[in-house]
Write a structure and sequence with these properties.
Strand order of the largest sheet of chain A: 1-2
Order of helices and strands of chain A: HHHHEEHHHHHHHHHH
Order of helices and strands of chain B: HHHHHHHHHH
CATH topology of chain B: MetI-like fold
Number of domains of chain A: 2
Largest sheet of chain B: none
Number of domains of chain B: 1
Distance between the termini of chain B: 28 Å
CATH class of chain B: Mainly Alpha
CATH architecture of chain B: Orthogonal Bundle
Strand content of chain A: under 5%
Number of helices of chain B: 10
Helix content of chain A: over 70%
Oligomer: heterodimer
Shape of chain A: globular
Radius of gyration of chain A: 24 Å
CATH superfamily of chain B: MetI-like
CATH superfamily of the largest domain in chain A: MetI-like
Largest sheet of chain A: 2 strands, antiparallel
Number of strands of chain B: 0
Shape of chain B: elongated
Structural class of chain A: mainly alpha
Distance between the termini of chain A: 13 Å
CATH architecture of the largest domain in chain A: Orthogonal Bundle
Chain lengths: 325, 278
Amino acid sequence: MPPTLAFLARRLLQLGPVVLAIAALNFALLHMAPGDVADIIAASSGGAPVEFVEELRRNFGLDRPLWEQFLVFLGRLLVLDLGWSHIQQAPVLELVMERVPATLLLMLAAILVAVAAGMLLGILAAMRHRSWIDAVLSILALVVYATPQFWLGLMLIVLFSVTLGILPSGGMMTIATDLSWSARALDIARHLVLPSLTLGLFYVALYTRLMRASMLEVFTLDFITTARAKGLSETRISFVHAARNALLPVVTLAGVQIGHILGGSILVETVFGWPGLGRLVFDALLQRDLPLLLGVLLVSSVVVVLVNLLVDLVYGLLDPRIVQR
Amino acid sequence: MSGLALFWRRFRRNTAAVGGLVVLLLIVGAAVFGPVLHPVDPFDMLGRPTQPPSARFLLGTDVSGRDILAGLLHGARVSLVVGIVASLAATVVGLLVGAVAGYYGGVIDNLLMRATDFFLTIPSFVLAIVIVAIFQPSIFTVTAAIATVSWPSVARLVRGEFIAQRDRDYVRACRALGMRDWEIILRQILPNALPPVIVVSSLMVATAILTESGLSFLGLSDPDVVSWGYQIGVGRSVLRVAWWMSAIPGVTILVTVLAINLVGEGLNDALNPRVQQR
């Protein structure tokens, strides 16, 4: 088996324990919650006699010993049964999975914005090290670090949608059925601008600082001195020679940050009415839909693990020296 | 020169950090004395809703005619208390886990670090939401949820420090003297491992305040107190006509978090002077 495939297989196997741990955590949280499914159903039907609640409990297997319930819970998980949302009257997995693509699209756009802008600004700051550009970028980064993302989103809506009126303030697409696919893509892209900027700006700041430090590190290496001695222009040295080598730590960090980006996406989606996991969480919170919330926790954790795996693969492509073990 | 004076001399050199400290002290002062100097119940409906800032209502009123300034001052208490307590709790748990894992190594280390990695993998904000939603929003559950998702980074850091220290000569000497493990951990290694931990947990206060504001924006805040994130959430419904209502608490969060971050950087310069300046 080629090494990359073997690596992939091993990493996929490692997913097992992670999913098992999340399942255990979910199960524990569900049982610490005041009131069980039977209580919720009884309450939603406007109060029910005790016998009826007991009957429900027996039907759901809630009178069985805890370990037995856990095994049943795991067994269901094995056949991808994440439970039933009694409020939306649909399987949790279905509800969650139909929201995953929108969240992934938003995260991807934010990461692209962050890596591209962060790289460029980081290179710029390193080239003009200790100049006013460097200072301004540092101050901006500090301010961005301190800005609550959801609030930034609201302020961008005020500026670009309310005052200037050039970008849509929410949703993922205009409600119209007669759009060609290219017009549809353009429409989604327009809706994507503000949410992805909101979500990405924090990481732009992060990657700018990281890229800058990494570039300064690379600038001290011998091959840069060689390039300078050859008489290459400083721009060429920075963008072609140094930037490639300085990129690695940025990619590593991007992987580490996936969980953080996903968390931020929950808030940003709420602000912009983006129909992803975040909106689902918000609705589930309003309706106290616990199974759905726990389903989102499980699926989003799996998404994080999978995206991390993807980042590791990209890492290997960028730097062939790294042996994927 | 005493340690404290030396510390202050190094801290003072970082002008931005001193500025941050001044702002932070002002905010703490506002949180402590504000509600006394401006004795208005932030839940009282006092005037016409959605008023812009005026002489009577310095920062205007919200959609229910409540005084925004009063909410801001009471919110400062919530943000600071939640931020500081959550960070302290996370630091204590992280110290314990990291110290035990780093000092003993082997199977214990392996188990504890698996748990730590697990908590670092799952999206922490989603976990915090789930915890607060399950146990009902209150100051306590919000603080506990933030602490629950914050300790792993401390644990990792502390473990690293303990691994670096555990085979040093002074630790071997302590063992040879027959000192108990917990004594070596707490009284010998811990003081040496503490400086970077202080920096990380001071920065964690800032993250905790941001997380708290996010939770309360989603409606996951103690219903009996006003918090900054809650105020932004209230202002959001009239964003198009009264943008300042959301802008004011947001700027407050920004300034507070920025001040804490600057102080954290200053602490870093003062406590870990070996870090080179670029």
